[in-house]
Design brief:
Elements lengths: L8 E2 L8 E2 L3 H19 L5 E6 L6 E4 L5 E3 L1 H6 L7 E6 L2 H14 L5 E5 L6 H7 L9 E7 L8 H7 L5 E6 L1 H6 L2 H5 L5 H6 L4 H7 L1 H4 L3 H15 L7 E6 L6 E8 L3 H13 L4 E4 L1
Helix pairs in contact: 1-12
Amino acid sequence: MIRFNPQIQVQPDGLHTPEVREWSLEKYKLVGSYCDIFTAGMRKKWNQLIYIDLFAGAGYAKIKETGKTYLNSALVAMSNPNPFTKYIFCEQDKARYEALCTRAKRDFSHLNYEIFQGDSNIIIDRVLQAIPPYGKGNTLLPFCFVDPFSLNLKFSTIESLGKGLMDFLILQALHMDGNRNLEKYLKEESTKIENYLGISNWREIFEKDATSNKTNFVKFLGDQYQGKMVGLGYQSAKHMHQIRSNEKNLPLYYLAFYSKHKRGEEFFEEVRKRITTQTTMNF
């Protein structure tokens, strides 16, 4: 059997195409591989499989180091050999939103999808309303990919989506945002970490354990987020896949997978075996 290759190179089409770094290809491979395993394993067990992408981008991305153009996560998911029942995309930036709309209509008009322009933290109710109805004899399982550029993801957004059954793959910018901006976030006027963790007294918790956490803000954020997800009924994520920079091999962010069922964890472990270069944070 030929395995689906999520790193899909395409020719430039003249539409808006953001420039990304080469390590984004590893991210596309991971999310695309999970889509492949998820749909292949679940399509006969559930009536509807839904793909949600809260920071969907333009559909195409140009690699800065090589100049080559690839499909990003949104269109990789739409290229999956076993299509989802429905795709739901959010993109705040107007140019990216318009490019994604054009590309989806041009190349994937045979699929069922909706694209919303706006901050997913603000328009999350529209996303929830776009999820098809389900009930007895009409089962539904969504998978949500969350790919913010920084810690600009509110936990209330994840909480709204995670009330029912839903698997998540969440990019956590713990190094490229959290660790780099610790001093700024410690100031009382900053609410970014409060919103990200959904914990109003996070500074107090952080200071209480300053001996072990003061020099490891990344671990503090990871531990607290983990606890919040477990509180929603999710399995504790055993590993978080780390993405590092190509030049200096510096840690950038983690991709954390959360599921309420052990089967989801088994799928993700299978995905990780497909990724040759990997580092994990263990909890």
